[in-house]
User: Fold this.
Amino acid sequence: MATTVTAPATHVLDRPRSRSLGAFATLARRRFALSARTPRELFVPLLTPILFALIIAPALAKVVGGTTASGLDYMTFVAIATAGLLIPLNMMFSGIGVIVDRETGARRDLLAAPIPRQLVVFGNLAVAFAVTALQVITLIVAATLRGADFVVSAGSALWFVGGASLLALGMYGVAETMANRVDRQEEYIAAVPAIAIVPWFFAGSLFPLAALPTALAGFARALPLTHAMALMRYGLLDRTGSGLHDIWGFGTTTQEAWMSLAVVAAFAAIMLTVAVRVFRKASVQ
Assistant:
């Protein structure tokens, strides 16, 4: 009797989970089909990282003399900064697809389906994350071929992956929230530069934080992007952690890295939570 009762109970518990996974996979495939229907739609997003890695970063390195004040290779310094620009931009532009779905797409049909509504958000997120990851990998490969001096140890790359991934998750939360709050695509697109580009200039992208005036440096330390880029550089270039020291100024390099990771993780968790709540609210209006 014990065996007879337990088996169906396990099956019943597992069935909703299997349905949720299947629904998530279907939603992700749908979004991918809409976002990358042709090879051109996959290739064009890769042009920007290739352009930065092969032309812009080497040109800037020649202008400043090849190294930063901390002795870091400047071309590699800018190549990693490019990831800090690509991730917010790509995630923010993914919000346009959310608006199109809301206005003229199949959003009403998706909301009528017997699935948890947050799966719609996470299905879109999965595709945006995958496309962004492809861009960042292309950037790193192109920069390496161009002569970037990445310094990678056995586990240091995990700091890069952690900082970049959490930044991407947080920025998608911002994109999803805005896409469900603004009325028109034009309004959304007008806000993208202020959210995705302006912070990049303050976050230690082209020069260390120490070069900023005191007030601006304080503002930069509050940006999740600053912490994410310090982690990315710590993982692939700045093994002394000079970027992390500029932010925190106390503790060991590893402690500072964990603190910055906590900041970016909190940003990702908060923004995704807000995005799901805003989506649920917008879906019943």
Remarks:
- DSSP finds eleven helices and no strands in the chain.
- Confidence is low (pLDDT under 50) at residues 5-13.
- The first helix runs from residue 2 to 35.
